[in-house]
Amino acid sequence: MDVLSELLDGTRARGGMFHQVVMDPPWSLHIKDEAPLGLLTMARGTAWLTPDGADPVRLRPGDIAVLRGPDPYTVSDVPGRAPDMVVHPGDRCTTPEGEELCEALALGVRTWGRNRDGADLLVNGTYQVQGGISRRLLAALPQFLVLPQESCGCPLLPLFADELARDAPGQQAVLDRLLDLTLIATLRAWFDRPDGDAPRWYRAQGDPVVGPALNLLHLHPARPWTVASLAAAVGVSRAALARRFTDLVGEPPMSYLTGWRIDLAGDLLREPGVTVASVARQVGYANAFALSAAFKRLRGLSPSEFRAGPTATGGAAEGGQPERALVRAPARVTAPEPGLRAVVR
Fold it and tell me: Which of 83, 78, 175, 69 is nearest to 123 (CA)?
């Protein structure tokens, strides 16, 4: 299993929130639900996506937008239109003045709007807790990105839209998995774009030395790895591996391993009934004390404090770790208009 597969395998929507919004112009929807990650697309019609503090980006049918929360954003029929609807945490929809709109806009299962046959149909799904998303993936994402339909061509989108309006047994699980698969397809296509600004660990997978080393660390994090044993496993000298790994990934092999172990520990600590000692053994630490010391050094709080904290924030960022801090300067990737290159900001 490659590194991206390993990271994506740990991405699981749990109780994601899903909607389709059907509107006729003029309309403007301000999303401030504070979800840590969201995807949206236009099933028909076009719209303009405007994250707060950023320029508007056009959404055409089949384009996929990925937004890293909790920052709010607006989707509207034309750029700059003042919102007439606001989506809040807890799946509440109001007017800008606070008047409840959920009942007035309800058109059926997971469907909002004022006209079921409206010209514009927006489909969206959001991860409601950060614990279901790999921190390393979040760290690799810009504030938002828009992937044009011709770059992704995700075959799941029509199925996603069809399933949204269904109310069958197990429907939440079906939608959660479709959200995961759509995210995977989108990120894979984005990372492979020349202008996709893929993280260093992703680019390093293609290296004949560092790629296998990364795979071993991800597949077997609990092994008592040293630089020497990892170098022997991939058939190079210790010095050669240390130098090449640091150059391509941005940090030494054992530093990367520590970060990966703590990322795994953070996910495992969210599971019910586990102990810090059992998590320590699963990620390669001799005991709970050793894990607690490493966890507090990277996350800024103990495993017990992390587990007791809100799942929507996932604890403090890992200060100083390359490619891994969650607090990043706002950035975005915008879909190119015909004849123009995509822009990264």
Answer: 175
- Secondary structure (3-state) at 68: strand
Torsion sign across C-alpha atoms 128, 34, 76, 334: negative
Residue 183, class by beta-carbon neighbours within 10 Å (0-12 exposed, 13-18 middle, 19+ buried)? buried
Place of tokens 């927006």: 122
Distance CA 218, CA 256 (A): 10
* Whether 19 contacts 111, CB under 8 Å: yes
Closest residue by Cα to residue 124 from 13, 198, 26? 13
Residue 192 is predicted with a pLDDT of: 79
Length of the chain, please?
345
Contacts of 266 (CB under 8 A, 6+ apart): 131, 135, 295, 299, 306, 314, 315
Nearest Cα neighbor of 342 from 147, 334, 194 is: 334
Name 73's bridge partners. 31, 51
b (16+ CB within 10 A) / e for 115-132:
eeebebbbbbbbbbbbbb
Q: Please name the helix (run of DSSP H) or strand (run of DSSP E) that holds residue 9, with its range, or none.
A: helix 3-9
Average pLDDT, consecutive stretches of 10 residues, N- to C-terminus, the chain (345 residues): 64 75 93 88 92 91 88 94 91 90 83 86 81 66 85 74 79 84 82 77 89 92 96 97 96 94 88 91 95 93 83 37 30 36 32
40 touches 124 (CB < 8 A): yes
- The 10 Å Cβ neighbour count of residue 24 is 14
pTM of the model: 0.72
